[in-house]
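Batch manifest, entry 17 of 40.
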Amino acid sequence: MSSREDEALALAAVDALTGQLALAPKPGLPDPRDLDARATRKDQLALRWSAKALAPGLAAMAAAARRTGEPTPGLRTELGAIGRSTEHSVALAGGGHRGALWALGLLVAAAALDPRAKALDVAATAKRIASHPDKRAPRRPSRGSSVSAKYGAAGARGEARAGFPHVRRALDALATARSTGATEAEARLDALLTVMSTLQDTELLYTAGPLGLRHVQAGARGILEAGGTSTEAGGAALTAFDDDLHARAWSPRGSAGLFAGALFLDSLPVSSLTRAA
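Output type: structure tokens
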């Protein structure tokens, strides 16, 4: 049974996910400013409802970690079972956020193991959890694992087993942008673009192939090299890049999920979250 602390962690993770949904413009990703042209209101509501549908599963993952007390193989197996059940609930709520569930679930569980841990320590603990195999995982490969095998990309599992390097880079980008006077929205967009600029996004590889992935990475790098979204040149490049990806129907959803993981870690420590809950 989940505790107040577990529910606070789950709420923080859902807030991180809905927080990145509210950003605009996000190149190739759902834009809350223009529901008619790029996503129907129904699609936007489905994304938000499915994000909220993650909360019970994430709280259960936190409770499992707190009960186990160590990043053991047994915990990894239990988290996998909870995750698959949660995927079913999310599908009933409109679908979406599968990649985010993997990242957020591991990070929430890692945070529950040590409520006083800092962001980078949480990522390191999540790496230890992810290093264990899920003995009850279905034998049939997922789309992401098939794409990873085809193109040699790390994929979601590789990212977790490496200690979430792109989540850590996003945290660094957030801190850098905030220190230079960027608004919170600009800092978050710069962090998202930082992830997009180097991530081997399996969702993009599936829809756009290696050339499309490199096109997206180069576009994200171009905005950052122009000074980021807080500058006039960077803002203009962001708008053009956003239009380009929506016209191509290329969506870097893998980057969005890892960016949500960074926002979750940025919201720690858990003690303040529990008081808020």
